[in-house]
TrEMBL record:
One of its GO terms (molecular function) is menaquinone-dependent protoporphyrinogen oxidase activity. It comes from Propionispora vibrioides. Signal peptide: none annotated. GO terms for biological process: heme biosynthetic process. This is Flavodoxin. Residues 4-161 form the Flavodoxin-like domain. InterPro entries: Flavodoxin/NO_synth, Flavodoxin_CS, Flavoprotein-like_sf, Protoporphyrinogen_IX_DH. It comes from the Bacteria. It holds the Pfam family Flavodoxin_3.
Length: 188
């Protein structure tokens, strides 16, 4: 099975996750930043990583996701919010909705990651009624996010992708077997 891992990373968070996933998927995998990613045609399984921007994948990844057709796809992401938050779940759902026709979403992974310091400075300038106004609670979340992705996050990503690779392999093998069985049946 040929595997393509594509990622977009602003602060290095998503790149770390992509490299961790690549490390466990073996010689069948290729790793590319989204800017230099090849077409997906020669691959069976495509893992796409992004940083969350405005509740979905960053712009470069949005454009790449729209080009994928007829593949087994897994998404992984990093964000400043907590990974078990509604925002995290909605961000993965919004990114998955960008996938082209005929794809199968094999699974997802998301973890916290440090926030671009320039963005934090912008948030500090927002008015009190803005949804991203900096509060003491938010400052604590920013401090926590700065610790991620940590070793536990990377090990969890690796475990998720080892399991997804096995599931995709079984699914693809099952599809190939059913295609062969279908072609060997008696003519009507």
């Amino acid at each position: 099975m040929k595997i393509l891992i594509v990622y977009s990373s602003l602060t290095g968070n998503t790149r770390k996750v992509a490299e961790a996933v690549y490390a466990v998927l073996g010689s069948e995998a290729d790793l590319f930043p989204v800017e230099t990613a090849p077409p997906v045609d020669a691959y069976d399984f495509v893992a796409v990583g992004f940083w969350v921007d405005k509740g979905t994948a960053d712009h470069k990844t949005q454009e790449y996701l729209k080009t994928i057709r007829g593949k087994e796809v897994a998404l992984f992401a990093t964000l400043g919010a907590y990974p078990d938050s509604e925002h995290a779940a909605a961000s993965l759902k919004n990114a998955a909705a960008l996938l082209g026709d005929g794809n199968h979403l094999a699974g997802t992974f998301i973890c916290q990651g440090k926030i671009d310091p320039r963005l934090i400075e912008q948030f500090k300038k927002t008015p009190g009624n803005h949804p991203h106004v900096v509060t003491s609670e938010r400052l604590e979340r920013y401090k926590e996010a700065a610790k991620h992705p940590d070793d536990n996050d990377l090990q969890t990503a690796q475990a998720v992708f080892v399991r997804l690779k096995e599931e995709v392999s079984r699914r693809l093998t099952g599809l190939q077997e059913s295609e062969v069985a279908g072609s060997c049946g008696k003519p009507d």
